[in-house]
Predict the structure.
Amino acid sequence: MTTLARAIEVSRRYGDVLALDRVSLDIRAGELVGLLGPNGAGKSTLINLFVGLRRATSGSVELFGGSPQDPAMRRGIGATPQETGLPETLRVGEIVDFVSAHFPDRVGKSELLARFALSDLAGRQVGGLSGGQKRRLAVALAFAGNPKLVFLDEPTTGLDVEARRALWEGIRSFHEEGGTVLLTSHYLEEIEALAQRVVVVGHGRVLADDTVHAVRDMVGVRRVSLVAENLPELPGVLGEERQDGRISLVTTDPDRLVIELVRSGAPFSGLEIRPTTLEEAFLALTSKESAHV
């Protein structure tokens, strides 16, 4: 597949803070890539390099084979940062018209508003919209110029479930038509629902780059669930949750955990062992990385 954007051994410093540490990443045509990582992991910095808002301290960044600082290259992208500001006196339709006018090839206003469930708001002033509605509009604007590649930084932050799913459908339809997307999210189920490829970053480095299933398998994390009043300290436990009388333990070695549990003599029932969610795999990856820093 054609590579649309590429980071090669990229590092970025902000004073004494190393935000990215020799990161290499290719974004290929037709992909929907989910970028995961805790706050401060370098996700937004990486997007800012790709869209030309920042320059790398070392290494190189390419966009459509050229420089992200070249306006001709940037015409092929759309982007929604974590925070956006929109003129509150303008109407939704007017803002779409204004942004679309900057692009030689553009999506029709009616089509764009319908894609993101904004048709009923076309005549509303931005100042009268809710926070969630403003966020949906900000994301929709990333698609106004009929881009080849879209960067979405935390696109559904602050949205309720219904609004998030409306955005998911808009992103999916763009991808199904051949568009390419890189999105970051703290909603890990969002990445599972949308992304084909997952890139996990932590401490400015790429920790994993593969499919959702492969990321889970890479860390070999399993969830051991059981009913018990008290448990002894058990080996290899990465996380513990208690809900509705059940205790769930996240571990890389479920066999050893169960053996030690039986040996302890602690009473328990309802033992279950199952594969992890992406969230559990992500926590295992970042916890392993933190242990080596």
User: Anything to note?
Assistant: The two ends are 35 Å apart (CA to CA). The chain has two domains: 3-215, 222-275. The chain has a mean pLDDT of 91. The longest helix spans residues 161-176.
